[in-house]
Amino acid sequence: MTKLKRIKQIKNIGVFSNFSNGGSIGFEKLTFIYGLNTHGKTTITDIFQSLKNDDGSIIELRKTVPEKKLAQVVVLTVGKNEVDSESELIFQNGAWGKNSVAENFEVFGTEFIHKNVFTGLTIQRENKENFTQFILGEQGVKLAEQIRNKRQELAGSKKNLNNKIPNFVNSKSDYEIRSFVDFPIEGFAKNIIEAELYQKRKFLQTEQERLAEPSKILNLKEPRKFELKTNIILENLTAINDLLAEDYSNIKEESIKKLNTHLSNNFSKKDNAENWIKEGLHYCENKEKGNCPFCGQDLAGARDIIELYNSYFNDAYKEFIVKITNGLNNKMEEIENVHFREKSELQTTLTLFGQYKNLIAAPNFQADLQELAANIDLIQEEVILSDKNELFIELKRKVDEKIKSPYKKVDLILFECFKINMINYLGYLTNSKRLIDLLIERINEFKNQYRDLSKIKESIAEVNEEIIALEYKKARVELDANCIAYKELVKSITQDEKHIKELDGRLQQEQSTYLESYFYKVNQIFKALGSGNFKLEKETGSRGHLPVYSLKVTFHGVNIPSDKLGSVFSESDRRALALSVFWVKIELKSNEEKLRTVIILDDPITSFDDNRITSSINLFKEMLRKISQIVVLTHYPNFIKRFCEMTKDSQVPTKFIELTSSSDTNLLSNGDRKFFTNSDFEKIFMKIYGYINKYHTESIKTDLRPFLENLYLPTVFAKKIQEKNVDCSSLEKMIDGIFDNLTIKERLHEFRRTLNPDSHTFTSNNEEDVRGFARGMMDYLFSLNFEDSK
Q1: 528: pLDDT strictly greater than 90
Q2: pLDDT value at position 120?
Q3: Paired strand residues for 670
Q4: Which helix (H) or strand (E) holds 35?
Q5: CA distance 49 to 360
Q6: In 10 A of CB 748, how many CB atoms?
Q7: 224 alpha carbon, distance to own chain's centre
Q8: Which of 56, 55, 54, 51 has its CA nearest to residue 77?
């Protein structure tokens, strides 16, 4: 359930330039807002209409007079029931914030009448047309307006669609146009397409020129395959290290010690001693007696040392020496003969491939050729040759050392860095061979095209198709903005057509069921509001392609032509019909929707007679049982008075709010039920009484004489006036005619003279003088009794 609790602020809207103290003015289930014309009634109605429509422009049009360039603000509060806390609804910066209750508000006023029945309160030519060709129900009017607007937009869109066709397909079929604008271009770049297109056109021109003289291509020299030579330098280095690491383990350790002792005792230089002894043994063979062939000493006593030498230098040892010496010399010779000269051959081959660089545009050929060139550049034969030569010097030193003492192990050669460089070198050569083989294969494939020209012709045809496709892509990219505009317009047209179809369907469906019950109830309420001589019937017609429901009106059974409706319907009839249309809308809501509904009525009974007013009040009271709240804005106090006469406050909790004005702004203030139910006598009495007792400061200077002359004497002494046939044409004659007592008569004449319109004495007095005079007069008047008049 939604309830409007209070209007706290209205600033810079219409006559409300700065109303900001509405927090104490609460709303009830039924709330009357009473105010004279120009006091802000229509402004408040527009505020609620803005809330209902969630449309800030309605308020923005309500400028203050004179206009102030200040922010417009409205603060309302709503709650779900009487005890719930209130939440604020704020209008500022041209919009309502967090407006979640718009659908719960229903506003009856000029805008509702304009939308649903008439353009205004009088029927002119336009009113007659609308009145005879309108669709009852706010939703129906909206649908009809939407359909008409959508059809107009659709016609304009279709007309404009031809102007949106991209130039590239301007003269093409609809299918070709749609295919072009729907062509996906994600990932496309104009510069890339143009570059590719340039290459394709260049390729096409080249191929056409080659096609004329294919022999030039076929006669081009072809590079030879690169043969990878065996290079066992790393194996040789490993073999040399193996030889250096060997020793002659068959020589007994005791023999080696004796030999070393002999060498130490007999040779001053031991470097070549072993070789010298080995050679000497050759001459001592088979000479068990005799002298040494070198020194001439008798060998008879040297038999032990000779046996020692023979044990050391046996046949196995000789074989070992041969193996070590020959092995080292052979490997060294092979290493020395390695010269690293493949790079020159590769560069020559690369030069031959260069002839084909501008001929074969295939990406794989160009990539392989580029990789080959880079691979050859990485080959550094001079560096690896220098490393080998340095390594060879070290090798020779260690080999010489080993040959001098074959039985001894010699430290190994360290060649890890050289090995890495050598492996890289061999890798470059292997990769070069692979690339050369690929390139030669691609050259053969390329030349084969020119051996059978049908293939090259097919290739040219394919390139032509590719060029067309690229031109298509290029145009699509260039015209993307046009394509987007075209597609958006097509999408809009499609959506409009679908929307129109949906609206047509909704209109047909809703109206066919809605109007049956709607028209029946409108007739009921229209008659209840005093227009019983009319009968309203539904009449189906058409305007263009849109089905409409016209209003057929009969009066006393006689059909009223559409051009005569304005003269037959009175102002009350027009207002009653509008109220009937509005009221049925509320009636046809679901019970749940009704419980959330707040109705705002702006002068609903303008120009109604007493009978219509009574019917309207009964209508409101009946609706109050079903809905959340009714707020009535009116400048007719008699309507409120009649409601109060028919309804006790205990039956319907009712609040009275008054629209007043101050020097700088109009205001809402708490009203009093008595203001509408009290007689004129009671109202003026309470005003004077309140002033005397300082309950308010509203001036009573102009109320004292009318109270005495028009209310007090005619009311209190009505019987006396009737019996004595008193002349009431003036206050003086009335006093003289009613009272016989001279004292009373003179006192009342004193009051009269003081209150004479041409007397300036009383009107110029200050507030306390007025208050004292009024107290004295009222005390005296209400001290009189009927006997005092004698």
Answers
A1: no
A2: 46
A3: 657
A4: none
A5: 79
A6: 24
A7: 66
A8: 51
